[in-house]
Amino acid sequence: MKKLLLATAATVALAGGAFADGHSGVKLGIIFGFTGPIESLTPPMAAGAEQAMAEVTASGKLLGGKAVSSVRADSTCVDSAAATAAAERLITSDKVSGIIGADCSGVTTAVLTNVALANGMVMISPSATSPALSTVEDNGLFFRTAPSDARQGTVMTSVIMDRGIKEVALTYTNNDYGKGLADAFQSAFEAAGGKVTISTAHEDGKADYSAEVGALAAAGGEVLVVAGYLDQGGKGIIEGSLDSGAFDTFVLPDGMVGDSLPVAIGSDLNGSFGQVPGTDSPGAAKLIEAADGYDGSAPFVAESYDAAALIMLAMQAAGSDKPADYKGKVFDVANAPGEKIYPGDLGKALEILAAGGEIDYVGASNVELVGAGESAGNYREIEISGGKLTTVKYR
Amino acid sequence: MEILNAFVLLSNFVLIPAISYGSQLALGALGVTIIYGILRFSNFAHGDTMAFGAMFTILFTWLFQSWGISIAPLPTALLALPFGIIACIGMVLGTDRLVYRFYRKQKAAPVIYLIASMGVMFITNGIIRFIIGPNDQKFQDGERFIIKARTFKEMTGLAEGMSIKVSQGITVVTTVIAVIILFWFLNKTRTGKSMRAYSDNEDLALLSGINPDKVVMVAWIICAILATIAGSLYGLDKSFKPFTYLQLLLPIFAAAIVGGLGSPIGAIAGGFVIAFSEIMVTYAYKKFLKYLVPESWEPESLVQLLSTDYKFAVSFLILLLVLLFRPTGIFAGKSV
Fold first, then answer.
1. Contact between A198 and B302 using a beta-carbon 8 Å cutoff
2. A220 vs B: CB within 8 A
3. Multiple choice CATH, B2-325, 1.10.3470, 3.30.420, 3.40.50, 1.10.8
4. Count of CB atoms within 10 A of residue B312's CB?
5. Which of the residues A200, A204, A210, A229 would you substitute to probe the B interface, choosing the one with the greatest number of B C-beta atoms within 10 Å?
6. What global pTM score does this model have?
7. What is the ipTM of this complex?
């Protein structure tokens, strides 16, 4: 029933958008999973993106005063066929000038390869983190304000290397997240001159991890990297390693960081370290303050706001709302040099760009595009001391 | 010295974990095998019976802890174990009364029992989550180690450490005691003998005046005792999480079938076969060989027969081989 209502509401909103279409306006598509496994996350994400559009419209400075309106579509997060159809509709019948989305990595890949490439449409995803999206063929059309898990592998490498550790054992939870992160980390670590003595999977929720711990211990290493979940097999591996004296120090990526882990393991975990996505940029606080009617601190809301803002700023920099014209400008507005732009400054940014100046969009999630057009990603390095998570620094 | 180091290394990572895990599986498999022998069906609810008994042990442990009662350095859970057993006996006798007795009167086929036991499994599952929740629970207290790896190294001067947890020690000792009592009961007492008679030939047993209701009741009580001990020991050694007890069901059944369903001695052997094969086949012997062979022969690779990903494949491969070549199991139980 709830889904039906939501779908109806979405349809009405879409129809309304279509009728209100003024010829001078710019339309941006938002394709998120409004139904499906992440349906609780997407409403504030869309609201964040729409807030950026409202801000730009209110400033009246985009391409000589064009209004920006949003068209929502449902990616379902899991059904590639449905997401492809929805994106097709956004482009052919709603005639959007850019797409914010999609959300989950699988449907994002499907929309990109089947629809965006064929139609030359720019897509900026706020939440797809799969490393595979870094190397997918995109003709310069695809960007993301979320970091790739490959980035976390690099960050983790420097976190470990900075402590003078050159040899690690690695275990990961046997799913896409664990495998992707483990592979990314291993290649980054080996490229940096480190050695991964063993890389072995563990299944979550199993009865006994002695075999895994035994193999890891036999391979050896100064620390053990556990790319798992803190309330699942990752915890079992750490307990087993501590009990048998196999490892004393553990590296904990984002899936392992939480307050419950030091509580469950106790003082033996002191000295272990790791990293989680996080930023101390002032932009995040500004968005939370400005958020009206939704939670600005909810997951991926900042990234969604930034995705929408980047598209509009790139349009302004190119002086055109044609994807082919502005796709080359996304990097320019996102990165230095130029004046730093935070949420709430979009009007000012448009003015600078109109005058031919340069901006460095920082936004709510501290955007810095690298590589194939993805956020460099900001991570908080943590260490466990005194039975608590403490912040070492931001990377 | 080198040989000693190699042996300590192997003990720490293979022998000790395998013996304690094997004991837990053996206790679980004994419960399954006894129900199979008497009631002639595979009790899929056994994993959750273990979780149910362990849950009550935990609740009583917390109660005793709040009263300040402890038997340090041993864990308080040992004190709570009898109360958990009583609660578990109540539960299994209740389900027998509500569910299985009906099918017994109908003289239902074993497969119907099996399906019914799955229903019991899901309901028990739900009750456990309802009472204690789906999360991890820790209830271990007292001393954690008999000997720590670091202390062992300092004491012996060896390069390799060996650690033995209190829970591992308790697991092995309790299993030995439970098995001795069980075998004494089955072989020496009148009730035990009548149970074996009932298991071997039901009609003949009934003719000779054995009361079937009593045999069934005693079987359930033994099953509950073993399940609660196995579940609590497992929770003490690892941690209590309802979901993992469901996962334990597979290795337990593998152990019971490998050993021969219906054969108590087979269940114990099966438990150790499964535990040792899971750990030994996937262990990387590089360091172990390093101690034993001359330096020039030292292996470059990890010397691991199979990656740990295949840990479960190992136990099921053994299960498959046993079923193919010796369908009744190692100790000739009933054929499956």
1. yes
2. yes
3. 1.10.3470
4. 17
5. A210
6. 0.70
7. 0.76
